Amino acid sequence: MTRVEQGSPLRVDALLARAATTVPDREALRFEERSWTYREVHDRASRLAGGLARLGVGSGDRVALWAPNRPEFVEVFFGVPKLGAIVAPFDFWWHWQEASGALEQLRPKVLIVGSPQASMVADALDAIRGFGVGRVLTLDDPPAAATLSSYHRLLAEAPPLEAPSPVEPSAPAAILFTSGSTGRSKGAVHTHAGLTAAAATMALELPFVDGERTLHFLPLFSSCLEHLLPLTLVRATHVVMPGFDARAVWETVERARVTHFDAVPTTLRRLLEAMPDQVPPSLRFVSYASERMPEQLIAALIERLPAVTFVQFYGMIEQLCLTVLEGSDQLRKSGTVGRPMLGAEIAVLTLPGDDSVGEIIARGPTMFAGYWQDPTTTAQVVTDGWMRTGDLGRFDEDGFLILEGRAKEMIKSGGMTVIPAEVEGVLAAHPAVRDVAVIGVPDPEWGEAVHAIVVLTPGATVGEAELKAHCRERLAGYKRPKAFHLVAELPRTGIGKIARRMVRDQVMAVEATERRG
Predict the structure, then answer these.
(1) Which of the listed residues 49, 95, 196, 258 has the most CB atoms within 10 Å of its CB?
(2) Are 118 and 143 in contact (CB under 8 A)?
């Protein structure tokens, strides 16, 4: 019989299988003092699939993972799709109420938890069974008297699943949850075809190289698409940290010879402040996303790290691969998020009375397949294949996209529209301002009044009069903050974005206290 060789199919688990076939002895994963080769990680992912099959998990079933950054994330993310099942990583900062809402939506057959989550789960087993969860696996020793099963014992006793279950490229592979900043978190469904397209697009558009050594300190539940998938495609070594600590990051870059890491502007600011005199020479490339990069910050990073290439990209849980700002454009096009990636189409639905700024809509091969069992909400954001991102933006003269904040964050003051990002950019240019958030606060005269919440640069002092004068020279009257609030730190989400709802609630509480006083 003629021998037939087949390339990797369009399925998520094939990314790991390809690396295990071509570079089986390369270091694939490192966590603290332990490491695993690609052969070992693939074997563990296959044993997980075999063990889950023994528990009755099959095609279309959901497996949820609720745990901090750990090496097991890799084998879960690639092992579950091998069964044709769907992996669903949860936000490890969630409280039980938030997690229970996601469990109620998904009704997963198996829930895998880390130590911080195991105690909450052990106290709510009746509720969990009511959500259809048949088995809870813990990554560590279960709490005393808890009827939880050992994840590692399952792997040790299970035979590897040798042949992946057949799946169509259009079949769901993962469900990723939105941040829930405007209500209950929604589960965005991603298919095998969409995720492999995302991996290939990111590997093409960002300067990843074969054998990269990448550091994960951002939460893997949110950064798996732009980080875990494309870097597995280029057969990188994944160095996993349990969380972000600026000094520990630099120490790990040195010790593990890290060549790349993914970040957000908030973590980059802290890394700049904690940067050692001698930066590890292995580091050559930093990617970042999440929000518009302050011009002063990227300029300072490039000055301190002249041998490091910085690349920005723009996307979201529902559609990752939208734009990229290459290294050579970081200063020339500062304030933009770049131009569309391969396959991405982007348009701006302009606002009434403004023919430049509007809501960004997009479509492309990496777009999600809808919210899990929620066609009504899906239809609210997807029309004729185009997704409403909820972001405001505009194109410059060269086709580079400029983000102007969220549509729901626009402030209406005296009938005029104020975009918080514009005011924040002006205030961020003041040398005494380290961080800033601008929000609208109810006002009996203007409808909403512009308020600025400011974090000062360490050691700096500045009065409200000086900040008002700074704005007076740069902003129209209706855009200028009516009040300034100095705070020690701004609350942020797990991936570093400003938690605006929390900021607004805090300001409202302070104002209510002052009125009563």
Answers:
(1) 49
(2) yes
Angle at CA of residue 221, ends 489 and 384, nearest 5° = 100
Around Cβ 246, how many Cβ atoms within 10 Å? Answer: 17
Identity of residue 83: L
Residue 241 tokens, joined:
């940290």
Give me the residue label for tokens 């020479």: 281
Residues near 242 by Cβ (< 8 Å), separated by ≥ 6? 68, 69, 70
CB-based contact 158:150 (threshold 8 Å): no
Residue of 125, 151, 142 whose CA lies nearest to 63: 151
How far apart CA 107 and CA 101 sit, in angstroms, is: 10
- For the record, the structure tokens of 104 come out as 């109620």
Q: How many CA atoms lie within 13 A of 268 on its CB side?
A: 29
Digit-by-digit pLDDT tens for the chain (517 residues) are: 566 665 667 899 999 999 999 999 999 999 999 999 999 999 999 999 999 999 999 999 999 999 999 999 999 999 999 999 999 999 888 888 889 999 999 999 999 999 889 989 988 989 999 999 999 999 987 766 567 899 999 999 999 998 999 999 999 999 999 865 445 789 999 999 999 999 999 999 999 999 999 999 999 988 777 899 999 999 999 999 999 999 999 999 999 999 999 998 889 989 999 999 999 999 999 999 877 788 889 999 999 999 999 999 999 999 989 999 999 999 999 989 999 999 999 999 987 666 778 999 999 999 999 999 999 999 999 999 999 998 889 999 999 999 887 778 878 786 677 888 889 889 998 999 998 999 888 877 777 889 999 999 888 888 889 999 999 988 888 899 999 999 888 888 766 677 777 887 787 777 666 656 5
Range 104-138 burial, b when 16+ CB lie within 10 A, else e: ebbebbbbbbbeebbebbbebeeebeebebebbbb
> Do 26 and 38 contact (CB within 8 A), yes or no?
yes
CB atoms under 10 Å from CB of 68, counted, come to 17
218 Cβ partners below 8 Å, 6+ apart? Answer: 227, 244, 262, 263, 264, 267, 495, 496
Q: How many Å apart are CA 458 and CA 471, to the nearest integer? A: 21
The amino acid present at 502, given as its one-letter code, is M
Q: Of 59, 242, 82, 275, which Cα lies nearest the Cα of 161?
A: 82
Phi, psi for 32 (deg, rounded to 5): 55, -120
CB-based burial label for 255 (10 Å; 0-12, 13-18, 19+)? exposed
Output the CA torsion sign for 226, 301, 244, 240.
positive
Q: How many Cβ atoms sit within 10 Å of the Cβ of residue 416?
A: 14
